[in-house]
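Support request, please re-run this one:
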Amino acid sequence: MQSIVINGRFLGQPLSGVQRFARELTLALDRKISTGTLPASLKDTRWRLVVPRDTPVDLALSAIEIDRFGSGPGHVWEQTSLLSRSRGSRLIGFGGSGPLLHRRQAVVIHDVTIFRHPQSFKRSYRLLHGALGTVLTRTAKIGTVSEFSRQELASVFRVSSAGIDVVYNAVDHFAAIEPDEAVMQRLGLKTNGFFLLVGTMKPNKNLDFAIRAFEALHDENQKLVVVGGSAPTVFKSEGQQSNGCLLFPGRLSDAEIAALERHATAFVFPSLYEGFGIPPLEAMTQGCPVLAADIPAVREASGDAALYFDPSTQDELIAAMRRIAADDALREDLRRRGYQNVTRFSWDGSANRVLSILEDL
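Re-run finished. Output below.
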């Protein structure tokens, strides 16, 4: 019987966009396997999610086996235990890395931020992932999350873009969340009385730029809520302190974020560089108007459903904030466009692309 292995290292990592992508695609594949909606060439296949032995697995899988094997630091585990356990099988990884000696694998590399914004990462992280990318783009089938990122990978690693597949992110999981409205009272917020930012303090996320723009707005009727955490072992970051109009509640649950998005004046996404840009789409599922940086990947994902600004020009963001806060009709129009835009993406559709990649292996 043929076998397909999913690299489960992501289950031992903090949850961010890459890990969300891996989790939701694994769940979508599991649903397809359970219902038998697979290509003919992939039926009668054994599917395994291989994870380090001590990694907790909180995915409700019905068709994909959980295979706990080996231990050790993440990259060491991939290059040794995962390589050994997946020998003779097709292997797919959703997190940008995999065993370099495996010759029947597909790897999704989300972006090339380490090259475009190296100041956001520690030198050791840049060197390791740069080396992994260089080898994997020449030995593995590569996927990525947008047409923009496809061209970026081809440019940075000097490979043909024709050999890179696009597997889009999706947000249907977020649309189904039941919002936790208690967060509004806990943070002392009122509907249409605050702007919302979600992200880390990495330089390429440009949160400081948005914070300065909000301070320059001088709107006593608005607050700015900055949700997120940092990963000091990877990123260079500095802590932030809350005050009367600036709130830094740290990491919140998806349900709490969904509630904030339902009540915010607008969601602000000031990033300088993205491979896709999923937070604006998550906000759109909750009917939240979006102010977004005018960069290629975000344009590709958000289409005409956002009000764009130059992420290097503070006056443009200030003007966008002022306009969205005062214009009820514009907010309603962006809500409608947002709901329409997110229908372009689904985990089911992305799982179909993954199955096609696996067929090619």
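The chain has two domains: 2-170+346-360, 179-342. The longest strand covers residues 45-51.
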